[in-house]
Write the structure tokens for this entry.
Amino acid sequence: MTIKTLGILGGGQLAAFIAQAARTLGISPIIMTPHADDPAVAIADKVFIAPWRDAEHLDQFSRACDVITVDSENIDYAALNYLCGRAVLRPSLAALGIFQDRLSERTFLQALNIPSVPFAAIAYDGDIRDAMAELGLPAVLKTRFGGYDGKGQTAIQSTTQAQHAFMQIAEQPAIYEKFINFSKEISCVGARGLHGQIEFYDLIENQNENHMLRQSVVPAAVSETIQQQAQQIFTRIVQALDYVGVLAVEFFLLPDNTLLVNEIAPRVHNTGHFTLDACLHSQFTQHVRAICGLPLGTTQRLANATMRNIVGEEVYAAQQWLYTPNAALYLYGKKDARAGRKMGHVTTLSAL
Amino acid sequence: MTIKTLGILGGGQLAAFIAQAARTLGISPIIMTPHADDPAVAIADKVFIAPWRDAEHLDQFSRACDVITVDSENIDYAALNYLCGRAVLRPSLAALGIFQDRLSERTFLQALNIPSVPFAAIAYDGDIRDAMAELGLPAVLKTRFGGYDGKGQTAIQSTTQAQHAFMQIAEQPAIYEKFINFSKEISCVGARGLHGQIEFYDLIENQNENHMLRQSVVPAAVSETIQQQAQQIFTRIVQALDYVGVLAVEFFLLPDNTLLVNEIAPRVHNTGHFTLDACLHSQFTQHVRAICGLPLGTTQRLANATMRNIVGEEVYAAQQWLYTPNAALYLYGKKDARAGRKMGHVTTLSAL
């Protein structure tokens, strides 16, 4: 079946870039989001503004779309589940479900024997004490559901803090993670096509600030062996899920050169934005190709790249980047420059 | 003044690419076109669908836009003239006016002492005979106004054809051009900023088919001297007009290495489409930067490129290009695949 319409659940900048990529390939982009002023709304061919659990709108949306994808793994599960029987959802409900829950994400990795950050499940207050005894301090308490950009996370340095941490996250189901003293944060962004083709972009080295991606540098300064290990782990993850689309695996690289999986995002990823400028096919085009059953494009890099997020009020000074001739500025058109909100990014290229 | 809204007269694929570039820089794109199904309509923030000479819509459009540009030099002159006193038009009315008329374009080049194709002005039937005596055969008769992609052109091989040629173009004012036996067709695409900054992309080598661009290859296989000569001519043209925006100069390169100007387009240009993939800043981003008074970006090329137009019914087989991993496909979303209509293009990259 030839895909003519592509639905996206969510209307943020990731949705906008996917929509633009779809349009360029002759596929009509359709958005469903609860927020009328989301960036992707302006460039979609059709828009459904409705709460996630509005069955009538979900019906209309599913009928309008040949294939449906998401701009976030945190789209309401009931909505995803409702759409699943009525439309083609890529990535699958199973994959999205696993990565909506930090606990099932970790259990999935354990089942595959993929090294990840040591953790314990927290359901009750008392679990924290047990986890602390087992995994020690410092640690991080993270809600199982709905966290991103450091939201729903609490660092624990001391026994006293541990006692408060569970309250701080409103006693939601959580995981207690050992704090990892890593030497680098790395991500691997790649795609798996409908017929199993896998293509990776080069490894990306990331710097965070306030639990949020500040800057990504490509290529990551890591050995060929690390690159291969990361790609092998990526491959095992996507094959185990029969995954279709772009996916990102975030790793900690330890001082002894061990790779631990930190997090998995079943979608296009902030650390992959450099592909808009440094590669012929961006992660967004690649995602559209994958979920539409089209062949994947080359992921070869044409330049070295540094991608920097423009966050909150930084957007008011963003035009300064226009004075850097080798910098490409992307503004997302969000009206409200709230603190910690991703307002745009800028990619600087240098010769290979 | 900071530009927040950018108006485009015309809604074709060039307008769509300009609109997308503007949006990415945080500038809201607004379209005015007589055709509701034009490609740019779907991605503009505001659209005015009206005939060019609809004063009320022109008023509204001019009030909505901080700066106004065109996607074609052939936008109705009366409309441009009406807007000129009411809005900021870039490029200027003077520049657009000169290049709407092949005769004034040639007189302009003569005044600058820039070598172009030998021609004679044709107003009456009898002028053809005189022109034939002066310039010889073969020749081409071209209408002064409104021609593009070979429309309004008639090749003249013989005296008999010459007698019919003027009738064939409905006795419109025309120019009679000596047929040039060139060795290459070359174009120079570049931009001039509001404060006089000039940036060129590398020279492009073009192949035509049925009077229409078939394929462009970058870099053109020409000497450094030819590149410099072309850029000098470009510079003299844009400086003479105090030109602001992207402009393309098409040249014939003769077997003796002389460069003749064939045509000038005061806008983004089909032969510059390779910049979408092979450069950090496309010609569209560069045009937006120029007309908004922003600094120009680098024009450095990251790869070698071949750009091929997808014309008419070729669009039905366009998906074949997705099987070429280093090819990027652009479809313009035009519904009617008329013969000779540009429906999309594909750019193939190879390493520098």
Summary: DSSP finds ten helices and 17 strands in chain B. The two ends of chain B are 40 Å apart (CA to CA).
